């Protein structure tokens, strides 16, 4: 199964910004899939963070990140992005991207609707 690849994580201070990338491998039908971003901390369930439709015309965000995070994509480059600003310590975790071929059925950002998960990238927000 083809898997997406996340990158761009790191250690930042509260209030700073960070942009994550999600790259599709060769042969992946990127422009036919919506992309979701998720995060997970030890001992907790994976949480849906954002959704972007395959043509970028529909987006959705978890309440905890609205007005701070922005998702975008470049289908020609087969890359999706999550730009995070005003970061808080509670934003720390492993961030994953995943693909959904079912269109608006994935708007609610439930992990069970997604596949082609990447390996994740660690984001740590700490002073």
Shape: globular
Low-confidence stretches: none
Query: What Rg is obtained from the alpha carbons, in whole angstroms?
Result: 13 Å
Please give the number of β-strands: 10
Strand content: 35-45%
- Oligomer status: single chain
Amino- and carboxy-terminal Cα gap: 39 Å
> How does the major sheet shape up?
6 strands, mixed
Could you please describe the fold and organization of this structure?
There is one protein chain. This protein has strands spanning 5-7, 10-12, 18-23, 34-40, 47-52, 59-61, 69-74, 79-84, 93-100, 121-125. It is mainly β. The protein has a 6-stranded mixed β-sheet with strand order 2-10-9-4-5-6, with no helix packed on it. A 4-stranded antiparallel β-sheet has the order 1-3-8-7, with no helix packed on it. A hairpin with a 4-residue loop joins strand 7 and strand 8 (79-84). It is globular.
Question: Any chance you could write out the topology, listing elements then pairs?
Answer:
Blueprint: E1 5-7, E2 10-12, E3 18-23, E4 34-40, E5 47-52, E6 59-61, E7 69-74, E8 79-84, E9 93-100, E10 121-125
Parallel strand pairs: 2-10
Antiparallel strand pairs: 1-3, 3-8, 4-5, 4-9, 5-6, 7-8, 9-10
């Amino acid at each position: 199964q083809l898997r997406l690849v996340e990158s761009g994580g790191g250690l930042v201070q509260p209030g700073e910004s960070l942009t994550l990338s999600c790259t599709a491998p060769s042969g992946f039908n990127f422009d036919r899939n919506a992309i979701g971003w998720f995060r997970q901390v030890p001992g907790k369930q994976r949480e849906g963070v954002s959704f972007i439709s395959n043509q970028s015309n529909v987006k959705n965000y978890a309440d905890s990140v609205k007005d701070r995070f922005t998702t975008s994509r470049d289908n020609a480059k087969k890359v999706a992005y999550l730009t995070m600003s005003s970061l808080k310590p509670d934003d720390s975790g492993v961030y994953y991207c995943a693909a959904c071929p079912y269109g608006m059925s994935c708007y609610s950002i439930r992990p069970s609707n997604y596949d082609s998960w990447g390996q994740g990238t660690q984001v740590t927000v700490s002073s």
